[in-house]
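WARN retry 2 of 3 for item q-0093 after timeout on previous attempt; input resubmitted unchanged.
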Amino acid sequence: MENWQQLGKAFNAYINEHPVQGELEGLYHPINYILRLGGKRIRPVLCLMANELFEGNKEEAMKAALAIEYFHNFSLIHDDIMDEAPLRRGQQTVHEKWNRDTAILSGDALFVKVYQQLEGLSATHLKTVLGVFNQTALEVCEGQQLDMDFEDIALDQLSLDRYTEMIRLKTAVLLGCSLKIGAIIANASVEDAENIYQFGLNLGIAFQIQDDYLDAFADTKDFGKQLGGDIIANKKTFLLLAAYQKASGKDREQLDFLLRQNIESKQKVEQMLALFQKLDIEKSARDSMQTYHSLALSALDRIDVTEEKKQPLLNLAESLLVRIN
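OK item q-0093 returned
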């Protein structure tokens, strides 16, 4: 089985060879612009890895992988508009480089291109793939709505369970979907397709919790960024929700003070990190990451193929937490 890097190179070559075609430059240039910004291509490569795991058709898997990448980038275009984000992967976002209306329309066109791409799948697989994809696409929208809703909900009305559900929908389900579609195209059994979906789903949740963790506890020498961006922005992360859940008395008063007062950023980060340490939030985050990481490995273990074939996916899962172990 090819490794992550090899499949990533193969997919990048494929997407570069298949630009989105159309006569209207104002519509299609923004689409190809965001697609060429690159990124890690995690989702399409997962589709290809699952397909290889079950010895499927590489050409058909590449078509599905491209559809998945189209959908992911459609969601990024629209997310950037909603977030009013100026940059994506270090470059101007589509709505900043062109304008808001162009970004909306180009995003819509890219979503249609997803279905045109999926039309190329065999009739044997198309209905099942569409069922999985449509459910996932709706869930991603639900996750984005939950994320926006969280901005206006008081901390005492939220919980770690609700937060986990939000990141499950917004991010993790598409990882699971990518793997499951690759498995379906390779004629995997219903049980194996579901197990590889659960592998991706739980891995995605662990990865998102790790993102929250790294904002507060990363080694700045290794990650080259200032710590505490989420703290400065009062972002509702796993860490903040866990702290609010644990804090009482004077700790709760201090937490409320830090969230309410406009104090100097460095001082705010230092005091919040000290409170996190006092409440043992670092351990809470690590334990949660490990729980979902273990669930992912259990799902992978249940898949009915040789351990040798699973190794690239196992390596991926193990690399997820290596940065903080």
